[in-house]
Amino acid sequence: MAKRYEKVSGDLRRRIESGEYAQGGRLPAETALVAEYKVSLPTLRQALAALQTEGLIEKRHGLGNFVRKPRQRAERSNLRHQWEKDRARADLRERSITGATERDTGLTIKQLAFHADYEQIDAPEGLAAALGVEPGTALLMRTYRTRSTDEGEPLNIARSYIPYEVAKQNPDLLDEDQEPWPGGTMNQLHTVGIEIDRVEEVVTARPPTQEETEELGLMPGVAVMDVRKTLYDTNGRIVEVADVVLPGDRYAVKCVTTLERW
Predict the structure, then answer these.
(1) Do domains 4-67 and 74-254 have the same CATH topology?
(2) Going by DSSP bridges, is the β-strand pair 238-247/224-233 parallel, antiparallel, or unpaired?
(3) How far apart (Å, rounded) are the C-alpha atoms in residues 194 and 186?
């Protein structure tokens, strides 16, 4: 049996989704909702907190509760990796048409704002182990933040780590002004003679840090997914490790497994 706050949140959700409460509009005052639903203030606030966690409403201090504009959704599938490899050797025109983020979101290049920061770092112990190199090895760290032009927060935060010795073989790979790079990392590695043989991804969920909550515009209670991506070349060497933080209210992770027939 549904609890009282669940019944209230369910009815408010229905009214939001039907458009009775418009996007950006203010909900009735909490005192008015208490009277309408005949519940206590703590029960009402529990219902509102549930809607806030879902990203349907936001509480503005001193102003009340407002219907939140739906955030851009994305679906991250493991099929993206073969799609990227298929395009790695395509000509520039074809590679420039669209990228992995556009594929995940359904947005066009013109609907996305892209930002990249490059930095040379010394590999800390944990990252060195993940890359199979000695601690202190020079790495090229690339941080990517891409957002919809209609929103202020990035869709995710991605940090890529490539051995500096690999990247410097093509000076363009050291220049953040070359981003967004048509064809992504697989094309970049192709320019230095590297073919990717397999991609491993490990996805875990956790509460966001305070910094991530602010940067990603997360509502209270929304978790993030950590994706640790590891790229292996055809010789079994690890050539990139990337850490991607996906907001739980934006992303669905889709895994597709093709089974061999008997």
Answers:
(1) no
(2) antiparallel
(3) 8
- Cβ-defined contacts of 78-83 (< 8 Å, 24+): 78/199, 78/201, 78/254, 78/255, 78/256, 79/256, 80/104, 81/196, 81/199
26: DSSP letter: B
Q: State residue 162's pLDDT score.
A: 98
Distance of CA 179 to the CA centre of its chain: 18
195: its two tokens: 């073919």
**Averaged pLDDT, 51-62:** 87
Whole-number pLDDT of residue 141: 98
- Could you tell me if 190 and 157 are in contact, meaning their C-beta atoms sit under 8 angstroms apart? no
pLDDT in tens, 208-222: 999 999 999 998 888
CATH tag, 4-67: 1.10.10.10
Rounded Cα distance between 73 and 27, Å, is 24
CATH superfamily of this structure's domain 74-254: Chorismate lyase-like (3.40.1410.10)
What Cα–Cα distance (Å) separates residue 108 from each residue in 112, 155, 197?
7, 14, 29
Q: For residue 164, how many C-alpha atoms fall within 13 Å in the half-sphere facing its CB?
A: 14
What is the pTM for the complete model shown?
0.85
Shortest CA distance to 167 belongs to which of 190, 140, 143? 140
Give me the pLDDT at residue 93, please. Answer: 94
pLDDT of residue 55: 81
Domain locations in the chain as residue ranges: 4-67, 74-254
